[in-house]
Design a protein that fits this description.
By secondary structure, this protein is of the alpha/beta class. The chain contains 21 helices and 14 strands. The chain has three domains: about 270 residues, Response regulator (Rossmann fold); about 35 residues, no CATH class; about 150 residues, 3-Layer(bba) Sandwich (Glucose Oxidase, domain 1). Bound molecules: FE2/S2 (inorganic) cluster and magnesium ion. One of its GO terms (molecular function) is metal ion binding.
Length: about 575
């Protein structure tokens, strides 16, 4: 803790506006707290710290957060704060349909408005499953009161037939083996029971660990917090420390706007690349930066990917799991390896700089956390493509793709929707071979809606049975960070708004050139103009409710898929209290 930081006077705390005045309204606020059995001295003159909890019975990754909130509460009380637990929307990645991505912005709004509408001085954000981290951070950044992020932590490792098994990554691998007949049904059912061994987020370098680690690199968590397994005793200890630290952060007025500078965001990008992080981060980071008033572009991130190789040997780029990463020193050790590329003077939630936080960190297992001299992959975690198929950009994760496709020409096989793809992909007469480029459209932010993780199109059954395990795939959808394969994602503008992806036809020749950063369809401009004239925008069935609001306001993938009216860092007025 930064002991030299002067303490703000009590009268400056937000909660004092609710609790301190000697008037009828404040009398009612105090009365209602006493109604819950609280004594005056438990809440008077203390920072009110919200524990924003994304626990739910349908969020396996957050199953332990209800009891973890108790640890946070302990820390808050010991440090002299008044803890209040506030539930927020729980985005359990696998259960929420059509996709949690629709609700990331909903959660961001909920966090922001919870913090604004209630007498809250600071907050501990409890979450970790994919969209939860960006959603909570985006809301907290927009509210801009002191907050600390407490990552849910990864689940325990599993092993199968002597090999590490990773959540997500091996689900698809085993499915492909099952479809191909290499796994029988009893084994398939055994795997169902053992692959996700404990509460906690995916143990691969999927979107969850990518985003919690980025949050840490940007200075929003305690040092090392994002790597602690959910079921390790260090986890509740870390949670308690988050509670204590949140109280001090209120006294120090250590707000996100003081932490999330341009340089801090860039540190997040460096971590993203060194981790071999999920392509989803390319959307979330743009959105997080946007809330802080910082313009982050795909090209800036892709440039960093060319100078920061993948050092974390984790699925899907490598072959280890988060527990191994933790034993090897966790994120601080990884950051120490790329320290020359980081802005070490960035302030963090500890009140100290990033450089101070990682000063004594080093990798204790060079197999898991590699050095710059011996990276897991020099191919990079992100590349941006442009061309007549994706004028505003598309992304690919070279480190999780097959280099044989990095220069590729193939015939397009186009699916108009995910339902169309599912209906046809396994037909025995499907006109497809391993050089075919599988294309899925109408999977974007508006088209799907919500840009689901459909971009890792399955390999057609007949090719799986022939031993094919990867193909070039192109879509305006996203892909799970736990997945691998040569998938061009986030094609922008998306088909549903008339992007050129809407115009490609089965049989067109598609050309990818990763070195040149290009993705094109070999179709003449005249022919494209003719197809455009005949194109009709799809009519979406969402005429009411949140999904309608989302569709009407969501930005494209290269802009972060935030809602346009939530962008920017213009202050919103505090609520009047009377
Ligand atoms: Fe929650 Fe992977 S499903 S982190
Ligand atoms: Mg995921």
């Amino acid at each position: 803790m930064a002991t030299s930081t002067p303490r703000r006077p009590l009268s400056e705390l937000r909660s004092q506006r609710w609790l301190a005045p000697d008037d009828m309204r404040s009398f009612a606020h105090r009365q209602r707290l006493q109604q819950m059995g609280l004594r005056r001295e438990e809440f008077m003159g203390r920072p009110v710290i919200a524990i924003i909890n994304t626990w739910s019975d349908l969020s396996p990754c957050h199953a332990h957060l209800r009891e973890r909130a108790d640890a946070v509460r302990r820390g808050i009380l010991l440090a002299g704060g008044f803890p209040v637990e506030l539930p927020a929307m729980s985005l359990g990645e696998v259960m929420v349909k059509p996709t949690t991505m629709i609700y990331r912005n909903f959660l961001a709004m909920e966090v922001e408005e919870l913090l604004r509408s209630l007498p809250i001085d600071g907050a501990v954000l409890l979450g970790g499953c994919d969209k939860t981290t960006p959603g909570m951070l985006m809301g907290a950044i927009s509210m801009d009161i002191p907050v600390i992020f407490c990552p849910a932590g990864p689940m325990l490792n599993d092993r199968h037939r002597g090999h590490s098994v990773g959540a997500g990554t091996h689900t698809r691998m085993f499915w492909d083996d099952y479809v191909a007949g290499a796994i029988d049904q009893p084994e398939w059912i055994r795997l169902e029971a053992k692959m996700t061994r404990s509460p906690g987020t995916c143990n691969t370098m999927g979107t969850a660990s990518t985003m919690t680690a980025i949050a840490e690199a940007m200075g929003m968590t305690l040092p090392g917090a994002s790597s602690i397994p959910a079921m390790d005793s260090n986890h509740p200890r870390m949670a308690a420390q988050c509670g204590a630290r949140a109280v001090d952060m209120v006294w120090e007025d250590l707000k996100p706007s003081r932490i999330l500078t341009r340089a801090a965001i860039d540190n997040g990008v460096v971590a993203y690349m060194a981790l071999g992080g999920s392509t989803n981060a390319a959307i979330h980071l743009v959105a997080i930066a946007g809330r802080a008033g910082i313009n982050l572009t795909l090209d800036q991130m892709a440039r960093t990917a060319t100078t920061v190789p993948v050092l974390a040997n984790l699925f899907p780029s490598g072959d280890k799991l988060m527990e191994d990463f933790y034993y090897a020193g966790g994120l601080p050790a990884l950051l120490a390896e790329v320290a020359p590329q980081l802005a070490l003077d960035c302030l963090t939630v500890t009140g100290r700089t990033l450089g101070e936080n990682i000063a004594s960190a080093s990798s204790t297992d060079a197999q898991v956390i590699r050095s710059l001299a011996e990276p897991v992959s020099a191919l990079g975690a992100l590349a941006v493509l442009r061309g007549n198929l994706c004028p505003d950009g598309a992304v690919i994760k070279p480190s999780a793709a097959n280099p044989k496709f990095f220069r590729h020409r193939g015939r397009a096989l186009v699916f108009d929707s995910n339902a169309d793809m599912l209906a046809r992909i396994n037909q025995s007469d499907l006109d497809v071979d391993e050089d075919t480029v599988l294309i899925l459209r109408n999977g974007g932010p508006i088209g799907a809606p919500g840009m689901p993780e459909w971009g890792n199109l399955p390999i057609p059954k007949k090719l799986l049975q022939a031993g094919v395990r990867d193909m070039l795939r192109v879509s305006d959808a996203r892909m799970s960070g736990t997945h691998y394969g040569t998938c061009v994602l986030h094609v922008t503008p998306e088909a549903a708004v008339g992007g050129p992806l809407a115009l490609v036809a089965t049989g067109d020749i598609i050309e990818l050139d990763l070195d040149a950063g290009s993705l094109n369809m070999m179709v003449s401009d005249d022919e494209l103009a003719r197809r455009r004239a005949a194109w009709q925008a799809p009519v979406h069935p969402y005429r009411r409710g949140y999904t309608r609001l989302y569709i009407e306001h969501v930005t494209q993938a290269d802009k972060g898929c935030d809602l346009d009216f939530l962008l920017g860092n213009e202050p919103t007025p505090e609520p009047p209290i009377f």
